[in-house]
Structures are given as structure tokens and as C-alpha cells.
Design goal:
The chain is 69% helix and 0% strand. The protein is an all-alpha fold and 145 residues long. The longest helix has 35 residues. It is elongated, with a radius of gyration of 21 Å.
Length: 145
């Protein structure tokens, strides 16, 4: 029944599983799906970290490469993303060990996003990320051309 409920009504399945956990009815839990959902939850936090880093790095690139068009909107995005990443890491300290990896994995998308947003030629943007993790996360770092 749990498998059917999982496939037909995820919301109800979640409430059923949490109720079974609270009642200590562990033998009735849908363990395969429960494990899968817990793993997916962790992946979502990592993907959120990657996404926020991509936005942050793209805007840092915009700030550096298209310096004559700097806007308060770019400044706001950079500040908001830095704070959101810090908050995500504070709430999920286990992600700190994967921060370098997430930054590396988000680089190509960040570069592509900056290229699309600025409508500048690809050659205007470095092939490798010019910023260190420390710089990306520092509230005092604003790249110069």
C-alpha cells in the first residue's frame, strides 16, 4: 500500500511516513522510498548551493567585464547571493566540505550566463574562474576590470 500511495499521492505518503515514525512503527515504513527521498533532500541542498554560486559568479563576471554598465541590481544580486550562501552553509554545515566542488561545477554555467546577459563575445570572458572561493564569498570583494 505504501508504494501505491507513494506513486499516487506523495503528499499523503509523506504524512503517513512521518506519522509512522512518530509512533515508532518502524516495521511499517516504506524504507526504500524513504531512503531515496532523504538522499534527494540532501542533493537539493547541494544543487541550491551550486545554483546560488552560479548566480553570484555570473554577476561578479558581469561586474568585472562590463564595468561601464554596473547597476545597483547587480550589486544587490551579489550581496543577496553571498548572504543566502552563508545562510545555507550555516544551516547545513556539511555542505562546507563541498563548497570548492560546487564552485568548480557551477563555473561553466556562470560563465555562460554572464555571456548571455551581457551579449558580449565569449572571448571577453576567462576560460577559468578568475576568482578564488575566498573572494567570491567576501563582502568586500568587487572585481575590477
Amino acid at each position: 500500500m505504501s508504494t501505491t500511495l507513494y506513486e499516487q499521492d506523495f503528499y499523503s505518503w509523506v504524512h503517513q511516513q512521518s506519522s509512522l515514525l512518530r509512533q515508532g512503527k518502524f516495521e511499517q515504513l516504506d524504507l526504500p522510498h524513504l531512503v531515496e527521498e532523504l538522499e534527494d533532500l540532501g542533493k537539493r541542498h547541494y544543487e541550491q548551493l551550486e545554483s546560488r554560486l552560479m548566480q553570484l559568479i555570473a554577476h561578479l563576471l558581469n561586474w568585472q567585464v562590463q564595468h561601464w554598465k554596473r547597476t545597483n541590481s547587480w550589486r544587490a544580486t551579489i550581496r543577496v547571493q553571498r548572504r543566502a550562501i552563508a545562510k545555507l552553509l550555516q544551516r547545513n554545515p556539511g555542505l562546507k566540505s563541498r563548497l570548492e566542488e560546487a564552485m568548480s561545477e557551477s563555473w561553466e554555467q556562470a560563465r555562460d550566463l554572464a555571456i548571455i546577459e551581457t551579449d558580449l563575445p565569449d572571448e571577453q570572458f576567462p576560460e577559468l574562474c578568475p576568482f578564488s572561493l575566498e573572494q567570491v564569498m567576501s563582502e568586500n570583494f568587487w572585481p575590477e576590470p
